[in-house]
Amino acid sequence: MKSSFIYLLFLYIIFILWGCGEKEKTGNLGETELYFDERLSSISADGDSAFWIGSEAGDIWYMKQRRLQPYNIGADRIYKVVTDSVLSDVRICWIGIRNSGLQKWALGEENVRLVEKYPICNKGCNYSVYDILLTDKKVYVATSQGLYAMSHSEKDSLKLIYPSDNSETARSGKPFIVNNIRKYESDYLLCATQNGLIRINLANGKMEVTHQDEHIYSVSVYDNKVYLLADKKLYVEDISGNLLNNITLKFSPRIYYKLGNIHYFLDDNHLLLSDDLESFLSVPLRRKVPQFCTNVVATDKVNGYTVLITENALWNIPLHLGIFNAKGEIVASCSDGDDIYYVNADNELYHQHTGSPEAFKIAEIPDDEVVSGMMADDKFLYYISNKQVLKRIKVRQRYIGNVLFASSQVLYQSPTKITASYLKKEAEGTCIYLGIQDDLVRIDADGKASLVDDLHNKYIMRISS
């Protein structure tokens, strides 16, 4: 059993990619995680509980009730997939692709068929499509060369809506990035661009541009309000453009999402959350989030999850994430079954049951310790202290019990920095693997530490199985 694990670990270290796994694991946000054997790029909702998942290599999966139907269209990075119609067991879809433009495909369980490609002036099909929005009459497309539109007819062609016909984009194909498109009820179309927000009145076609000379990374509509994410700023406006709130951020997210009263901000390796836009919780992510487009997060309204795309995995995060009473920045977290543990910047340890709206303070870690990693099993909580010491503590669920009885035990003192850690439950008990500079250490259930010879002189950055 041990040798097979070491072999898998060795494969991981030499960067052989994982296969798409059906096994789900619970992580530090209470999420379940589904692994894929290639890098993911986007997720597009199809109704309330179905999704299109796109990859860097042009693979697409249709996911409904955790069932995955794969399609390979042999394209580049997939930014967006939108279902146009369903005919028997075939879905007719609009697909936005890097450097291959807008395409329409017939995706069936037995085969896939390209229906049409849609070139634009100056670029042909050599442009990127970041977002697609369908209305009753038109298809709107956010591209690397501006905002385009066409009718639903296959015989129609894309026409440039913005910038204007006398712009350098229209004349010579100069890039003009439109990041995403949102509709405000049935009245307006809103587009986030590299140079402001485009607001189009769908009734009369009147167009207005605000926030010129400012890069708007995304536009969203929630509760009849318009949210604009710019560089270290979040603007909240009404549909007429009147400013309701202007929040200055101390971080630089590229993705914004709101669910209920919770605001989500994402950069490549942090999730920041707020319920008042005044105080923020920073949660480090175990996996990076793609930053190439805004289509990386969606809502599974039927099953009660936020669905997040990371580089090699899909996460289902419970909607009722109740960690806001764990004050301060979260510096480390882990889970064991339905139990989730957090340590904040004040070295306060919190506990939360998956699905519970509250987290409770259960212990305090000494001020002279800096926690950089956590793991848990049925009996103990393990944490990395000051990047060189592995400690173990028996945690009770009530604060008073931990104050009176809990004390930490040193399991391993590393001569160098601990670079990675992994807890593995084996038949004989819990085993801890630690990556240290140029070695892998195995600590068995009895606390005995030994080096793994096969991985001597290997710098280990992450351990998984």
UniProtKB/TrEMBL annotation:
InterPro entries in UniProt: Quinoprotein_ADH-like_sf, WD40/YVTN_repeat-like_dom_sf
Organism: Phocaeicola coprocola
Superkingdom of origin organism: Bacteria
Name of the protein: Uncharacterized protein
